[in-house]
Amino acid sequence: MLADSTPDVGRVEIRNLERRFGTGADRITALGPIDLDIAPGEFLVLVGASGSGKSTLLRQVAGFDSPTKGTVAIDGGAPHAGRTAGVVFQQPRLFPWRTVRGNVELALGYAGVARSQRHAKADELLARVGLEGTAKRRVWEISGGQQQRVAIARALAVETPVLLMDEPFAALDALTRERLQDDIRLVSATTGRTTIFVTHSAEEAAFLGTRIVVLSKRPGQVVADIASPLARDAKPEHVRDSLEFSALRQEISTAVKSAAQ
Ligand SMILES: Nc1ncnc2c1ncn2[C@@H]1O[C@H](COP(=O)(O)OP(=O)(O)OP(=O)(O)O)[C@@H](O)[C@H]1O
Predict the structure, then answer these.
(1) Residue ranges of the ABC transporter domain (predicted)?
(2) Does the ipTM exceed 0.90?
Protein backbone atom coordinates (compact mmCIF):
# COMPACT_ATOMS: atom_id res chain seq x y z
CA MET A 1 0.00 0.00 0.00
CA LEU A 2 1.39 3.40 -0.92
CA ALA A 3 0.74 6.81 0.65
CA ASP A 4 -2.92 7.96 0.52
CA SER A 5 -1.74 10.93 -1.54
CA THR A 6 1.57 12.41 -2.52
CA PRO A 7 2.61 14.52 0.46
CA ASP A 8 3.39 18.16 -0.26
CA VAL A 9 4.28 19.18 3.28
CA GLY A 10 7.04 18.02 5.56
CA ARG A 11 10.14 19.33 3.82
CA VAL A 12 13.01 19.63 6.30
CA GLU A 13 16.03 21.76 5.39
CA ILE A 14 19.05 21.71 7.65
CA ARG A 15 21.72 24.24 6.71
CA ASN A 16 25.22 24.50 8.11
CA LEU A 17 23.91 23.43 11.51
CA GLU A 18 26.21 23.30 14.53
CA ARG A 19 25.44 22.78 18.21
CA ARG A 20 28.02 23.45 20.90
CA PHE A 21 27.57 22.95 24.63
CA GLY A 22 29.34 24.41 27.66
CA THR A 23 31.69 27.36 28.03
CA GLY A 24 35.44 28.04 28.16
CA ALA A 25 37.66 24.97 28.42
CA ASP A 26 34.57 22.75 28.83
CA ARG A 27 33.07 23.85 25.53
CA ILE A 28 32.37 20.96 23.15
CA THR A 29 31.05 20.83 19.63
CA ALA A 30 28.48 18.05 19.73
CA LEU A 31 27.23 18.34 16.20
CA GLY A 32 28.02 19.70 12.79
CA PRO A 33 28.37 21.31 10.47
CA ILE A 34 25.43 19.42 8.98
CA ASP A 35 23.50 20.00 5.75
CA LEU A 36 20.50 17.80 4.98
CA ASP A 37 17.48 18.13 2.73
CA ILE A 38 14.68 15.78 3.65
CA ALA A 39 11.84 15.52 1.14
CA PRO A 40 8.16 15.24 2.08
CA GLY A 41 7.28 11.64 2.93
CA GLU A 42 10.84 10.43 3.40
CA PHE A 43 11.54 8.01 6.28
CA LEU A 44 15.05 9.01 7.29
CA VAL A 45 16.84 6.86 9.84
CA LEU A 46 19.74 8.41 11.76
CA VAL A 47 22.40 6.03 12.98
CA GLY A 48 25.80 6.57 14.56
CA ALA A 49 27.85 5.72 17.62
CA SER A 50 26.75 6.75 21.10
CA GLY A 51 27.39 10.48 21.56
CA SER A 52 27.45 11.25 17.82
CA GLY A 53 24.66 13.79 18.29
CA LYS A 54 21.59 11.93 16.97
CA SER A 55 19.28 13.09 19.77
CA THR A 56 20.78 16.58 19.63
CA LEU A 57 19.92 16.80 15.92
CA LEU A 58 16.39 15.53 16.56
CA ARG A 59 15.91 18.14 19.27
CA GLN A 60 16.82 20.91 16.82
CA VAL A 61 14.23 19.64 14.33
CA ALA A 62 11.64 19.25 17.11
CA GLY A 63 12.17 22.87 18.16
CA PHE A 64 13.12 21.82 21.73
CA ASP A 65 16.58 23.33 21.32
CA SER A 66 18.23 25.85 18.98
CA PRO A 67 21.41 25.50 16.93
CA THR A 68 24.51 27.46 17.91
CA LYS A 69 25.02 28.14 14.20
CA GLY A 70 22.99 27.45 11.07
CA THR A 71 19.28 26.83 10.60
CA VAL A 72 16.52 24.23 10.53
CA ALA A 73 13.41 24.95 8.46
CA ILE A 74 10.23 22.91 8.17
CA ASP A 75 8.29 23.89 5.06
CA GLY A 76 10.27 27.11 5.05
CA GLY A 77 9.52 28.12 8.65
CA ALA A 78 11.18 27.72 12.03
CA PRO A 79 10.41 24.50 13.94
CA HIS A 80 7.80 24.99 16.62
CA ALA A 81 7.63 22.39 19.41
CA GLY A 82 4.32 20.51 19.20
CA ARG A 83 3.12 22.26 16.05
CA THR A 84 5.55 21.27 13.31
CA ALA A 85 6.60 17.86 14.62
CA GLY A 86 5.14 15.06 16.76
CA VAL A 87 7.73 13.30 18.92
CA VAL A 88 7.93 9.73 20.24
CA PHE A 89 10.61 9.04 22.86
CA GLN A 90 12.18 5.82 24.15
CA GLN A 91 9.82 5.95 27.14
CA PRO A 92 6.16 6.45 26.18
CA ARG A 93 5.53 9.36 28.64
CA LEU A 94 1.77 8.76 28.93
CA PHE A 95 -0.63 9.94 31.63
CA PRO A 96 -0.99 6.76 33.73
CA TRP A 97 -4.26 7.72 35.42
CA ARG A 98 -6.00 8.19 32.09
CA THR A 99 -7.40 5.49 29.85
CA VAL A 100 -5.71 4.56 26.58
CA ARG A 101 -8.38 6.47 24.66
CA GLY A 102 -8.12 9.35 27.13
CA ASN A 103 -4.44 9.80 26.35
CA VAL A 104 -5.12 10.04 22.63
CA GLU A 105 -8.16 12.31 23.18
CA LEU A 106 -5.98 14.68 25.16
CA ALA A 107 -3.59 15.04 22.21
CA LEU A 108 -6.54 15.57 19.88
CA GLY A 109 -7.74 18.32 22.21
CA TYR A 110 -4.36 20.04 22.01
CA ALA A 111 -4.57 19.68 18.22
CA GLY A 112 -7.86 21.60 18.23
CA VAL A 113 -10.16 18.69 17.30
CA ALA A 114 -13.75 19.35 18.49
CA ARG A 115 -14.73 17.45 21.65
CA SER A 116 -17.59 15.68 19.83
CA GLN A 117 -15.16 14.16 17.31
CA ARG A 118 -12.38 13.11 19.66
CA HIS A 119 -13.82 9.76 20.74
CA ALA A 120 -14.24 8.40 17.19
CA LYS A 121 -10.98 9.89 15.97
CA ALA A 122 -9.08 8.39 18.95
CA ASP A 123 -10.51 4.94 18.18
CA GLU A 124 -9.51 5.31 14.53
CA LEU A 125 -5.93 6.14 15.54
CA LEU A 126 -5.82 3.28 18.05
CA ALA A 127 -6.96 0.89 15.30
CA ARG A 128 -4.21 2.24 13.06
CA VAL A 129 -1.56 1.16 15.58
CA GLY A 130 -3.21 -2.20 16.30
CA LEU A 131 -4.82 -1.31 19.63
CA GLU A 132 -8.47 -2.08 18.96
CA GLY A 133 -10.21 -3.24 22.13
CA THR A 134 -7.88 -1.55 24.62
CA ALA A 135 -9.42 1.93 24.55
CA LYS A 136 -11.03 1.73 28.00
CA ARG A 137 -8.05 0.26 29.81
CA ARG A 138 -5.79 2.28 32.05
CA VAL A 139 -2.25 2.82 30.83
CA TRP A 140 -0.74 0.90 33.76
CA GLU A 141 -2.84 -2.15 32.80
CA ILE A 142 -1.26 -2.59 29.35
CA SER A 143 2.19 -3.85 28.31
CA GLY A 144 5.22 -1.72 27.48
CA GLY A 145 4.80 -2.46 23.77
CA GLN A 146 1.15 -1.43 23.91
CA GLN A 147 2.08 1.75 25.78
CA GLN A 148 4.54 2.63 23.02
CA ARG A 149 1.75 2.07 20.47
CA VAL A 150 -0.38 4.57 22.42
CA ALA A 151 2.50 7.06 22.27
CA ILE A 152 2.66 6.59 18.49
CA ALA A 153 -1.13 7.03 18.15
CA ARG A 154 -0.83 10.19 20.22
CA ALA A 155 1.94 11.54 17.99
CA LEU A 156 -0.16 10.75 14.91
CA ALA A 157 -3.15 12.56 16.49
CA VAL A 158 -1.50 15.90 16.05
CA GLU A 159 -1.31 16.25 12.29
CA THR A 160 2.13 17.77 12.17
CA PRO A 161 4.04 17.55 8.88
CA VAL A 162 6.91 15.74 10.57
CA LEU A 163 7.18 12.81 12.97
CA LEU A 164 10.32 12.38 15.10
CA MET A 165 11.14 9.12 16.87
CA ASP A 166 14.08 8.79 19.25
CA GLU A 167 14.87 5.09 19.78
CA PRO A 168 11.17 4.37 20.37
CA PHE A 169 11.55 0.59 20.43
CA ALA A 170 14.87 0.32 22.29
CA ALA A 171 13.32 -0.67 25.62
CA LEU A 172 11.10 -3.42 24.17
CA ASP A 173 11.69 -7.16 23.86
CA ALA A 174 12.77 -8.48 20.44
CA LEU A 175 9.40 -9.88 19.39
CA THR A 176 7.42 -6.78 20.36
CA ARG A 177 10.03 -4.64 18.71
CA GLU A 178 9.73 -6.57 15.45
CA ARG A 179 5.92 -6.29 15.50
CA LEU A 180 6.09 -2.55 16.05
CA GLN A 181 8.64 -2.20 13.27
CA ASP A 182 6.25 -4.01 10.91
CA ASP A 183 3.42 -1.70 11.97
CA ILE A 184 5.32 1.57 11.80
CA ARG A 185 6.63 0.66 8.34
CA LEU A 186 3.04 0.22 7.16
CA VAL A 187 1.72 3.27 9.04
CA SER A 188 4.44 5.44 7.56
CA ALA A 189 3.83 4.14 4.03
CA THR A 190 0.11 4.92 4.35
CA THR A 191 0.32 8.31 6.11
CA GLY A 192 3.25 9.54 4.00
CA ARG A 193 4.42 11.66 6.92
CA THR A 194 8.08 12.76 6.86
CA THR A 195 9.78 10.79 9.62
CA ILE A 196 13.18 11.03 11.27
CA PHE A 197 13.91 7.94 13.35
CA VAL A 198 16.95 7.44 15.59
CA THR A 199 18.28 3.96 16.30
CA HIS A 200 21.45 2.07 17.23
CA SER A 201 20.38 -0.94 15.22
CA ALA A 202 21.59 -1.42 11.62
CA GLU A 203 18.84 -4.00 11.19
CA GLU A 204 16.10 -1.61 12.30
CA ALA A 205 17.57 1.13 10.09
CA ALA A 206 17.63 -1.16 7.03
CA PHE A 207 14.08 -2.35 7.66
CA LEU A 208 12.48 1.06 8.23
CA GLY A 209 14.37 3.70 6.30
CA THR A 210 13.78 4.94 2.80
CA ARG A 211 17.07 6.70 3.49
CA ILE A 212 19.74 6.05 6.10
CA VAL A 213 22.11 8.76 7.31
CA VAL A 214 25.18 7.80 9.32
CA LEU A 215 26.78 10.33 11.69
CA SER A 216 30.47 10.34 12.59
CA LYS A 217 31.67 10.33 16.18
CA ARG A 218 31.66 13.74 17.89
CA PRO A 219 31.23 16.25 16.40
CA GLY A 220 28.51 14.42 14.48
CA GLN A 221 28.73 14.98 10.75
CA VAL A 222 27.12 13.10 7.87
CA VAL A 223 29.55 10.41 6.71
CA ALA A 224 27.16 8.21 4.72
CA ASP A 225 23.80 8.88 3.10
CA ILE A 226 22.25 5.69 1.75
CA ALA A 227 19.04 5.40 -0.30
CA SER A 228 17.18 2.17 0.45
CA PRO A 229 16.54 -0.06 -2.57
CA LEU A 230 13.71 -1.87 -0.73
CA ALA A 231 10.13 -1.48 -1.97
CA ARG A 232 7.99 0.50 0.46
CA ASP A 233 4.92 -1.63 -0.13
CA ALA A 234 6.63 -5.02 0.19
CA LYS A 235 5.33 -7.37 2.90
CA PRO A 236 7.49 -7.23 6.08
CA GLU A 237 8.36 -10.95 5.95
CA HIS A 238 9.45 -10.62 2.33
CA VAL A 239 11.65 -7.65 3.23
CA ARG A 240 13.32 -9.46 6.13
CA ASP A 241 13.99 -12.54 4.01
CA SER A 242 15.41 -10.65 1.03
CA LEU A 243 19.03 -10.49 -0.06
CA GLU A 244 18.69 -6.72 -0.59
CA PHE A 245 17.76 -6.31 3.08
CA SER A 246 20.79 -8.34 4.26
CA ALA A 247 23.10 -6.37 2.00
CA LEU A 248 21.68 -3.04 3.18
CA ARG A 249 21.97 -4.03 6.85
CA GLN A 250 25.58 -5.01 6.23
CA GLU A 251 26.34 -1.74 4.41
CA ILE A 252 24.89 0.30 7.30
CA SER A 253 26.69 -1.75 9.92
CA THR A 254 30.04 -1.31 8.14
CA ALA A 255 29.45 2.46 7.73
CA VAL A 256 28.59 2.86 11.44
CA LYS A 257 31.67 0.89 12.54
CA SER A 258 34.05 2.85 10.33
CA ALA A 259 32.42 6.16 11.38
CA ALA A 260 33.02 5.32 15.04
CA GLN A 261 36.81 4.86 14.60
N1 LIG B 1 22.44 19.61 27.26
C2 LIG B 1 23.70 19.19 27.05
N3 LIG B 1 24.73 19.74 27.72
C4 LIG B 1 26.00 19.34 27.50
N5 LIG B 1 26.34 18.37 26.63
C6 LIG B 1 25.36 17.78 25.94
C7 LIG B 1 23.99 18.16 26.11
N8 LIG B 1 23.22 17.38 25.27
C9 LIG B 1 24.08 16.57 24.63
N10 LIG B 1 25.35 16.82 25.02
C11 LIG B 1 26.55 16.15 24.50
O12 LIG B 1 26.48 16.15 23.09
C13 LIG B 1 26.97 14.93 22.55
C14 LIG B 1 25.90 14.28 21.69
O15 LIG B 1 24.85 13.79 22.52
P16 LIG B 1 23.55 13.07 21.96
O17 LIG B 1 22.74 12.63 23.12
O18 LIG B 1 22.92 13.93 20.96
O19 LIG B 1 24.19 11.81 21.21
P20 LIG B 1 23.46 10.51 20.68
O21 LIG B 1 24.10 10.18 19.38
O22 LIG B 1 21.99 10.70 20.67
O23 LIG B 1 23.88 9.46 21.79
P24 LIG B 1 23.16 8.08 22.25
O25 LIG B 1 23.21 7.20 21.04
O26 LIG B 1 24.03 7.58 23.35
O27 LIG B 1 21.77 8.41 22.68
C28 LIG B 1 27.39 14.08 23.75
O29 LIG B 1 28.79 14.26 23.94
C30 LIG B 1 26.60 14.67 24.89
O31 LIG B 1 27.26 14.48 26.11
Answers:
(1) 12-242
(2) yes
Which of 19, 56, 65, 199 is the best mutation target for the ligand 1 pocket, counting ligand atoms within 8 Å of the beta carbon and taking the most?
56
Say if CB 168 and CB 150 are below 8 A apart.
no
Model confidence over 177-186: pLDDT tens digits? Answer: 888 888 888 8
Rounded average pLDDT over 241-254: 96
Ligand 1 mean position, distance from CA 191 (Å): 31
Ligand 1 neighbour 54 (Cβ under 6 A): yes
Under a CB-based contact definition with an 8 Å cutoff, are residues 156 and 186 in contact? no
pLDDT tens for 115-133 read 999 999 999 989 888 888 8
